[in-house]
Design goal:
Elements: E1 6-14, H1 31-53, E2 60-64, H2 66-72, H3 75-98, H4 103-126, H5 131-140, E3 144-149, H6 156-159, H7 163-181, E4 187-189, H8 200-205, E5 210-213, H9 215-219, E6 233-234, E7 240-243, H10 246-253, H11 272-275, H12 278-281, H13 313-338, E8 347-353, H14 364-377, E9 382-384, H15 387-393, E10 398-399, H16 423-441, H17 447-463, H18 466-474, H19 478-501, H20 506-515
Parallel strand pairs: 1-2, 1-8, 1-9, 2-3, 3-4, 4-5, 5-7, 6-10
Antiparallel strand pairs: 6-7
Helix pairs in contact: 1-5, 1-14, 3-4, 13-14, 16-17, 16-19, 17-19, 17-20, 18-19
Length: 528
C-alpha cells in the first residue's frame, strides 16, 4: 500500500429554510423537505449504514442547519411526509398498471414503487420518524462529524451592520445544535460561506473552532497563505478557516463537464407531473392544478436533445463507479504533487450542498458510497478526514486574516444584494436595531411579555434567512419568498409596537407562535 501523503475532507451542507404551514396543506414549498428526505437524507443514511456494515472506515462532515433540524423534529411535518409518501406509493401502483405494455417503463415504475415503499418503512419503522437521531448515531460512532450554521442562514456580510444580529445567529445556531446532539459543535458552515472578520469574536465566544469558506476567502487572505487552500489558516482572533478546493469542486459541480451531467444519469427535469395526462395526474400535483414534479422520472439525460431515452439503473451505476474511479485518480495525482510543497500533509476540502447528492444528482449518494469504498480498499495515497481531526493532528498553521467573501455568482455578495432584492435589507436592519432596543428597554421580562419578546426574536431570525434573497435573485418561487419576508417583518413590527404600548394580543401571539415554532429555548436577551 502507498504511504499516505495527504487528506481529502468531504463537507455536505444540509440546509432548507424553515417552512411550516399548519394552517394549510396548499403550500407546495413544504414538499422541498419531503423531496430532500427521500432523495438525499435517507439515501445518505442508507449508504453510511452499508459502509459501516461492510467494515469500511470512512469520514464525512455534514452541517445540519437549525431550520432543517427544527423541521426534522416537527410532528406535523412527519405526518405530512408520510402522507406525501402514501400518495407517491399510490401513484406508483397506478403507474405499474399504466405501463404494463412497456417492459422498460414497467420495470422503472416497479422500482419507484419499491423505493417509496422502502422510504416509508425506513422512516416509520427503522428511524421512528427521527432522522436527527439517525445522523447523530453516525457522529457518535465516529464516522460523521456534524457541524452547525447560523440560526436561519442569515447572511453575515450584510447583517454585520448591527453586530448583535450576527451574534444572535451564531448563538442560536450553537444552542440548537447542542439541543439535538448533546455536545458543542466544533465547526460552522458560514451561511452562503459569507465571511466577515467582525464575526470571529462571536464565533470564539460560542466555542466555534473552525469555519468553511469559499476558495478566494483563503487565497486573498492577508498575508497571502503559503499553501493556498491546501492547508487551513487561523485568523488573528483564533478561528481556523478551511477553503474550498477549486479542482475537485469543478469535477462534481460544473454543469458543463461535471459528473452529474453524464448522459446515463437520471434527467431531473422530465417528470410525469409534466408528461402524464392531466386528468390522470391531477390528484398528485399542486392543489391549484399547476403541474409540478412528482419525483417519478423515467428518462436519462441522453444528451443535449429533447428526445430522451429511458433511464437505465445499471448504466447509471456503471457511470457512477467509473467516475468514482476518476475522482480517486485525480485526488491521488493532486496529493502526489502537493505533498512535496506543504509543511503538513495537504488537505483537499470538498464542500457541496447536501441536496446535490440525490435530489439534483440522483446517483450522487451511490457515487459517494463507491468512492469511499475505493479510498478504503484501493491503492491510494490519501485518507478521508474531518476538519476537526485535521486540526487535532496538525495544530500549527499560518496566521492570516481571511478575505471578506462568499460563494454564489462572482463570489462576493451580489446574489444577496442586488437591484431585485436590495429593498429587503433596510427592513432587516431596522428590525435588527428594534430588537436590540426591546432587549434594552425590557430586560429579563417574565410571563406574556417575555413570550412576546422571544417571538419577536424568532420573527427577526426567520426574516433574515438568506434563502428568501437567493430565491428572489434566481426568479424561482419569488412570490413565496417575498410573502415570507413580508409576513415575518409584519409580525415582528406588530409585536414590537404591542410590546412598547403594553397592548399584547395573546390570540395573535399564540397564532404566530404555532406557525413559527422554531427555537423553543430562545432567549431574546441575546440581543442585549
Amino acid at each position: 500500500m502507498q504511504k499516505k501523503k495527504g487528506y481529502v475532507s468531504f463537507v455536505l451542507h444540509a440546509h432548507l429554510p424553515f417552512i411550516h404551514h399548519p394552517e394549510s396543506d396548499d403550500y407546495l414549498e413544504e414538499s422541498w423537505l419531503y423531496e430532500a428526505i427521500s432523495e438525499t437524507y435517507i439515501p445518505l443514511l442508507t449508504n453510511f449504514q452499508k459502509l459501516v456494515d461492510e467494515g469500511v472506515n470512512f469520514r464525512i462532515t455534514m452541517s445540519m442547519t437549525p431550520p432543517l433540524l427544527s423541521m426534522l423534529d416537527n410532528k406535523l411535518l412527519h405526518k405530512k411526509y408520510i402522507n406525501y409518501l402514501n400518495k407517491l406509493i399510490e401513484l406508483s401502483e397506478k403507474e405499474i398498471k399504466r405501463t404494463a405494455g412497456d417492459k422498460r417503463l414497467n420495470e422503472l415504475s416497479h422500482y419507484y414503487y419499491d423505493r417509496y415503499s422502502n422510504d416509508l418503512h425506513l422512516f416509520k419503522d427503522v428511524y421512528k420518524c427521527n432522522l436527527i437521531q439517525a445522523f447523530k448515531h453516525f457522529q457518535d460512532i465516529g464516522v460523521l462529524e456534524i457541524i452547525t450554521c447560523g440560526a436561519t442562514h442569515g447572511y453575515f456580510p450584510i447583517l454585520y451592520v448591527n453586530e448583535k444580529t450576527v451574534k444572535a445567529q451564531i448563538a442560536v445556531g450553537v444552542q440548537t445544535y447542542e439541543r439535538y446532539f448533546g455536545r458543542k459543535p466544533r465547526g460552522i458552515w458560514l451561511p452562503e460561506c459569507g465571511y466577515v472578520p467582525e464575526a470571529d469574536k462571536y464565533l470564539k465566544e460560542f466555542g466555534i473552532e473552525y469555519i468553511i469558506t469559499e476558495s478566494h476567502g483563503i487565497l486573498y487572505a492577508d498575508p497571502t497563505p503559503l499553501y493556498g487552500t491546501f492547508a487551513p489558516i487561523v485568523s488573528p482572533e483564533g478561528v481556523v478557516a478551511f477553503g474550498r478546493d477549486i479542482e475537485s469542486s469543478r469535477q462534481v459541480w460544473s454543469s458543463i463537464d461535471g459528473y452529474p451531467g453524464d448522459f446515463n444519469y437520471r434527467e431531473f427535469y422530465r417528470d410525469i407531473g409534466y408528461d402524464a395526462d392531466y386528468d390522470y395526474i391531477k390528484p398528485y400535483i399542486a392543489h391549484n392544478g399547476v403541474r409540478v414534479h412528482t419525483g417519478i422520472k423515467y428518462y436519462r439525460i441522453t444528451g443535449k436533445t429533447e428526445f430522451k431515452d429511458y433511464y437505465n439503473l445499471q448504466w447509471a451505476k456503471d457511470s457512477a463507479e467509473r467516475q468514482a474511479g476518476h475522482f480517486l485518480d485525480c485526488r491521488n495525482k493532486q496529493i502526489e504533487n502537493l505533498a512535496q510543497y506543504t509543511e503538513n500533509p495537504p488537505i483537499i476540502l470538498c464542500p457541496y450542498d447536501a441536496e446535490l447528492y440525490g435530489h439534483w444528482w440522483y446517483e450522487g449518494p451511490y457515487w459517494l458510497y463507491i468512492l469511499f469504498k475505493k479510498i478504503y480498499y484501493d491503492d491510494c495515497n490519501f485518507e478521508l478526514i474531518t476538519p476537526s481531526e485535521y486540526i487535532d493532528k496538525y495544530p500549527n498553521m499560518q496566521v492570516a486574516s481571511p478575505c471578506r467573501s462568499s460563494w454564489g455568482a462572482n463570489g462576493y455578495s451580489e446574489v444577496w444584494l442586488n437591484p431585485s432584492n436590495d429593498y429587503v435589507h433596510r427592513h432587516l436592519h431596522v428590525a435588527g436595531d428594534r430588537m436590540c432596543e426591546l432587549a434594552h428597554l425590557f430586560p429579563n421580562e417574565t410571563g406574556l411579555k417575555k413570550k412576546a419578546l422571544n417571538q419577536c426574536a424568532r420573527e427577526l431570525l426567520l426574516a433574515q434567512s438568506s434563502d428568501w434573497l437567493f430565491i428572489i435573485t434566481n426568479g424561482t418561487m419569488v412570490d413565496y419568498a417575498k410573502k415570507r419576508i413580508k409576513d415575518h417583518i409584519g409580525r415582528f413590527t406588530t409585536l414590537y409596537n404591542d410590546i412598547k404600548n403594553d397592548t399584547i394580543d395573546e390570540d395573535f401571539l399564540n397564532d404566530i407562535y404555532e406557525k413559527d415554532c422554531v427555537f423553543p429555548d430562545i432567549d431574546y436577551m441575546i440581543y442585549f
